[in-house]
Amino acid sequence: MDINELTYKINGCAMKVHNTLGNGFQEVIYQRCLAIEFTKAGLGYEREKEQTIYYEGIDVGARRADFIVEGGVVVELKAVINLEDVHLAQAKNYVVAYDFKIGLLINFGANSLQFKKVFNTRYNKQS
User: Fold this and answer.
1) Residues 36, 39, 44, 50: what is their CA dihedral angle, to the nearest 10 degrees?
2) Looking at domain 3-119, which CATH architecture does it have?
């Protein structure tokens, strides 16, 4: 499945969750429901995958992405009224840290589901 089909499928799963629950729950509730929908859709995923962050080759800590789907898309969830630049920056940082081409930032907190594609301008696919 190509990346556009995959992101479309991920967004479809998120829309199902949002249509069922609406907004107003904590992020972890949406995360658990989205995991159920990914399973139902036959998507492979890892939840809360930890990634070490390096600064000039030195381990400076770790961050956890909400999901890695099909080994190639970072999915970061929010449950806030409005997405802000800091949320977009966080999603972009995850895409770069994991060296993935694309990520999705999905917000369940607004009246309508919000999602943004984020791209890694430094993407360096390893052969």
Assistant:
1) 20
2) Alpha-Beta Complex (3.90)
Give CA–CA dist 113/52, Å, rounded. Answer: 30
Residue with the two structure tokens 């190509």: 2
Q: Is 49 exposed, middle or buried (0-12, 13-18, 19+ CB in 10 A)?
A: middle
What is the strand order of the sheet 114-119 is part of? 45-55, 58-69, 73-78, 102-107, 114-119
Confidence of residue 17 (pLDDT cuts 50, 70, 90): very high
Residue 106 has pLDDT above 60, yes or no: yes
Domain ranges across the chain:
3-119
Position 127, amino acid: S
Assessment of whether the complete model's pTM goes beyond 0.85: yes
Q: What confidence tens digit (pLDDT) does each residue in 53-89 have?
A: 888 888 999 889 999 999 999 999 999 999 999 999 9
